[in-house]
Amino acid sequence: METLNMKQLGYKQASFSDSIKGIARSVYTGFPNFDMEVTDEVKAELFAGYQLRVAENQPNLKQHFVIESGTYLPVEKLAFDTYKGEKYIRDVDSIMSYTPQAFGALRQSNPQLHSILKESRDAISKYCSNTLNALKKAVREIKNEGKPRERGATLSFAQTVKETLDGLKKKCANAKARVDETADERKLILAISEFNRKWLAK
Question: Phi and psi of 89, rounded to 5°?
Answer without folding.
Answer: -110, 120
